[in-house]
Amino acid sequence: MRIGQGYDVHKFAEGRDLILGGVTIPYEKGLLGHSDADVLAHAIIDALLGAAALGDIGEHFPDTDPKYKGVSSMELLKHVAALLEEKGYVVENIDSTVIAQKPKLLSYRPLMAENIAGALNLPVDKVNVKATTEEGLGFTGRGEGISSQAVALLTSVGDYCYDDRIMQNDCQGCKGCCKHD
Ligand SMILES: Nc1ccn([C@@H]2O[C@H](COP(=O)(O)O)[C@@H](O)[C@H]2O)c(=O)n1
Ligand SMILES: C[C@@]1(CO)OP(=O)(O)OP(=O)(O)OC[C@H]1O
């Protein structure tokens, strides 16, 4: 099993959409970025790349590359899902937090989790999104931007060969290496 963490910040700007977890949220401002500035998706991407020791978002999707100008971060997430699959990793779960003084995000959380799970081809109960304010403190508290944090847990097909409990309950990940196959 491998764990990864991710963190990202984007600042607010006029005339931009506010996109979090692939959901366009009605608000007076949006986040600034080369991409759609989906700060939640970016933290999750870094958590997934970190768990797989595959570097970080800027290495894979440079903000100097015009092909990522305005790109949907859900597309970047799909690309990361393909990379992980190619390396034999399975995403066990993702937990994440959006830190925003405003707007209230509670009602959008199920849709954000659905979008993220969809992009990663995961059941929705493997993805959790939380939201918190920083009680008016710091740059998020002053409403200057939004930050997000995420953690991700990965297993690889080989993990199933070393854990008796997993071998007996779920051999599908073994690809022939499990003694129950
Ligand atoms: N942008 C946000 C921030 C918070 N929430 C919800 O409110 C709860 C309380 O937040 P505190 O920062 O005051 O602890 C939090 O647990 C979230 O459910 C939100 O929806 N949107
Ligand atoms: C996602 C990318 C891709 O253009 O652009 P930004 O929206 O600027 O996001 P950031 O988290 O600052 O850096 C990663 C970039 O590579």
Automatic annotation (TrEMBL):
It comes from Lacrimispora amygdalina. A divalent metal cation binds at residues 8, 10, 42. The keyword Acetylation does not apply. InterPro entries: MECDP_synthase (IPR003526), MECDP_synthase_CS (IPR020555), MECDP_synthase_sf (IPR036571). Binds 1 divalent metal cation per subunit. Keywords: Isoprene biosynthesis, Lyase, Metal-binding. PANTHER family: 2-C-METHYL-D-ERYTHRITOL 2,4-CYCLODIPHOSPHATE SYNTHASE, CHLOROPLASTIC. Signal peptide: none annotated. Belongs to the IspF family. This is 2-C-methyl-D-erythritol 2,4-cyclodiphosphate synthase. The lineage of its organism: Bacteria, Bacillati, Bacillota, Clostridia, Lachnospirales. It catalyses: 4-CDP-2-C-methyl-D-erythritol 2-phosphate = 2-C-methyl-D-erythritol 2,4-cyclic diphosphate + CMP. It is an enzyme of class 4 (lyase).
